[in-house]
Amino acid sequence: MLAWIALLWLLEVLDVATGHALDGFGVTPREPSELADVVPSSFVHFGFAHLAANTVPLLVLGFLAALSGLRRFLLVAALIVVVDGLGVWLISPAGTNTAGASGLIFGLFGFLLVTGFVERRPLGILAGVLVAAIWGGSILAGLAPTQSGVSWQGHLLGLLAGVGAAFALRRRPAPPPALTP
Questions:
Q1: CB 3.0–4.6 Å: which of 3, 20, 45, 114 could bond 50 by disulfide?
Q2: Nearest alpha-carbon partner for 96 in 28, 21, 149
Q3: Domain containing 7: what range?
Q4: Is 98 helix (H, G, I), strand (E, B) or coil?
Q5: pTM (2 decimals)?
């Protein structure tokens, strides 16, 4: 996660150095050429304040999600990024430009919130409860369509993608050993 965060900060430094040339990698809804920006949009931010607001939650939630294995984490993150980006492309208001890691953050929150219940693992349930207690209020606030310049659509779709990832990538418990007579 530290490398991921470092990459995001490096990209924002490059964005500022190039007069915000990377901001064009955000998603503008329903323009076919913008489908190519569905994944890159999660790595681009609109300024250092935007990136700073996403850094700690991404670091913590990403670290917690990665505890279940790097391969699984990368699958979860990829699923969230793609579903969230496509959803933003489909339903966000025309003429907007959406970028940032917040869709992934909301997705990781959703994943961590439900995966313990889906897999029936007590430690996962405890992690979900703790994540909800710490970030639940700010997540709910981020879903409200009241903040100008904030994509509640990206937040909601990320959250739904994370919940979907918990179901799609759930680990099934091993069957009990067979009894031999």
A1: 45
A2: 28
A3: 2-168
A4: strand
A5: 0.93
Record the tokens describing residue 158, joined without a space.
């990320």
Map residue 54 onto helix, strand or coil: helix
Report d(CA 181, CA 127) in Å as an integer: 40
Both structure tokens of 7: 């990459």
**CATH number for the domain that contains residue 29:** 1.20.1540.10
Look at residue 111 and tell me if it is in a domain: yes
Dihedral (CA of 115, 112, 90, 82) sign: negative
Domain annotation covers residue 173: no
Two tokens, residue 127: 């992690």
How far apart, in Å, are the Cα atoms of 155 and each of 127, 158, 181? Answer: 21, 5, 55
User: Which structure tokens are listed for 64?
Assistant: 């917690």
Report the distance separating Cα 113 and Cα 130, nearest Å: 9
- Tokens read off for 66: 């990665």
Residue ranges of E strands in the chain: none
Domains: count for the chain: 1
Q: Is 47 left (phi over 0), alpha (psi -120 to 50) or beta?
A: left
